[in-house]
Amino acid sequence: MTFQIKGGLTLKVNVPYGKNDSFEIDVPGKQLLGVFDPNDVKKVDSDDAIDQALANPFDSESFNNFIDTSDRIVFIVNDGTRPTPTAKVLKHIYPKIKDKNIFFIVATGVHRAPTEEEYEMIFGKDIYEDLNNRNLIHSHDSKNDEMEYLGKSSNGTEMYINKIVADAKKVVPISSIEPHYFAGFTGGRKSFLPGVASYDTISQNHYLALQDSSRAMKLDGNPVHEDMMDAMKVLKNINIFAIEMVLDSDHDIYAVTTGDLAKSFYAGIDKAKEVFAVQIPKKADIVISTAPYPMDVDLYQSQKALDNGKLALAKNGIEILVAKCRTGIGPKPFYNLLSSEKDPKDVLDKIHHEWKLGYHKAAKMAQIGTWASTWAVTDLTDEEMRNVHFKPYHDLKKAFKDALDEKGDNASVIVLPAGSMTVPEVKDH
């Protein structure tokens, strides 16, 4: 929790917006329950953490031994919507792998392909230039790429994955572990599903997100996570060396785990909780939740900040989403569903009668609108925001003033400057 006293009466709170901008608001001290960021944790030497993890994997040979082969090694990396410091890992391993039989695939899931700027962010400018010149990068296309069927999960999810990955004898997924609003956590199995899976496979898995038990930091009893883990069994003929990272609030590396896909993933979970799970005194009448760069790419991705923010919001409260939405709304099915009905309750009713990929996020967003007010500060047009049931703003100062006017002088306030990565939990009484 961080705040600054201003004049002894109000608190000055800085709220980030986009890559380089921010808003500054003044909150009456008696009303502010707190500004909650991911927890402060001890800084580590990221270079040493990476080297140690590569040399000491879970239930696997070392990375150096793993890559000692003439077989093709396929590396799966996250797209530009994740804060994963892929470039830092590549800086360590690229000298060892650049002359080997390698190939990189960007795990877009159903997201768009990265922009040139995003490619440089993911790989690092020099490594991206080298790989690109050698045609060693492919961005996964869930609808048009050639897929291979590997089998079914126990829930019936048909596992089709990109043939580039299916044909590989050795695969190195590089990802990060942070809370995810319906999968429990990112990382591990998500590199494959949804990362490099077919559109239909992703749709089948994400349908399970409509269940209440699919939520942030929950794994046991979470049908989405359990389906993903079960689907991973069909990858048994692929030799996998996973590289997982947990980041702190500054997006610096806090922990690195490697080796077996499941064991390295679970090993990172406790570390992730140390960073992202925050204790709040009670739920607030007004919650400001920010989708920080680069997770503010569009409304579809920014929704995670909204969903985490609702965990800190009292019934009939106001949640203000702050997200630049640099590239717009996001997938059309998501927008079309939300904008097709005049009331969030009607949106939820519609979901009960039909299903399309993208509806899971629309459902989660609509659910909030049935018991609270949703406002937003974005670069989107007012019409776009109204169509998806947000009260539109472009200035947080104005939005916050209006919220205080509506909720009154006794309204409590919580601010989540990194709402996409901060999971509030009410303190036990």
Write up what this structure looks like.
This protein has 15 helices and 22 strands. The protein has 429 residues and is an alpha/beta fold. It has two domains: 4-30 and 281-426, LarA, C-terminal domain (2-enoyl-CoA Hydratase, Chain A, domain 1), CATH 3.90.226; 46-275, 3-Layer(aba) Sandwich (Rossmann fold). Strands 5, 6, 7, 10, 13, 14 and 15 form a seven-stranded mixed sheet that branches. Strands 4-21-17-18-19-20 form a six-stranded parallel sheet. It is globular and about 70 Å long. It starts with a strand and ends with a strand.
Secondary-structure map with pairings?
Elements: E1 4-6, E2 10-17, E3 21-28, E4 32-35, H1 46-55, H2 63-66, E5 73-78, H3 86-97, E6 102-107, H4 116-123, H5 125-133, E7 137-139, E8 147-152, E9 158-162, H6 163-166, E10 170-176, E11 179-180, E12 184-185, H7 199-206, H8 223-231, E13 239-240, E14 242-247, E15 253-259, H9 261-276, E16 277-280, E17 284-290, H10 299-310, E18 313-322, H11 332-339, H12 344-351, H13 359-369, E19 373-377, H14 382-387, E20 391-393, H15 396-407, E21 413-416, E22 423-426
Helix pairs in contact: 4-5, 10-13, 11-13, 12-13
